[in-house]
Design a protein that fits this description.
The protein has 150 residues and is α/β, with parallel strands linked by helices. Helix content is 43%, strand content 17%. A 5-stranded parallel β-sheet has the order 2-1-3-4-5, sandwiched between helices. Helix 4 links the parallel strand 3 and strand 4.
Length: 150
């Protein structure tokens, strides 16, 4: 089952917060290959993520994301701080946040769930496995799940 405009009446907006250019490129390529109707915006650090969400400065025209893919280890403001801000701000707290990170540390897993992350996924190092993970995110979060509107 594929989501299309006739089913949703709008495109799904995804915000990718990822500082690793290779991982960002792979994620964007996986979304493109799946052909699920969506718009993917990319920012490379936590400060930019919060500016994007708040529509500040160069992000004044940004659309509110329906889903956020968030790396934990980011420059300037790390993903844990970004998650805490998102989940305590009434404007953003209902946006599902998927933590997509290389960390497999139990402390990180517990911390992000305590901060109300919706999902925690460890990035595989194998390219094919990484593409499979992104495809699973798309299949579940962009096809099966009913996302909240603004």
């Amino acid at each position: 089952m594929r989501r299309d405009l006739s089913m949703t009446d709008r495109e799904i907006q995804v915000l990718l917060v990822e500082d690793n250019p290779g991982d960002a490129r792979l994620t964007m390529e996986a979304f493109k290959q799946a052909r699920v109707v969506n718009r993917l915006a990319h920012v490379s650090d936590g400060v930019e993520a919060l500016a994007y969400l708040s529509r500040q400065e160069k992000y004044a025209g940004a659309q509110r994301p329906d889903l956020i893919l968030l790396d934990l280890n980011l420059p300037r403001k790390d993903g844990r701080e970004v998650l805490a801000t998102i989940k305590t701000d009434d404007r953003f707290k209902r946006i599902p946040v998927i933590v997509l990170t290389t960390s497999q540390a139990e402390d990180d897993i517990l911390k992000v769930y305590n901060l109300n992350a919706n999902c925690y996924i460890s990035k595989p190092v194998d390219l094919d496995e990484f593409m499979t993970v992104v495809k699973c995110i798309e299949d579940f979060w962009l096809t099966v799940v009913k996302l909240p509107g603004e």
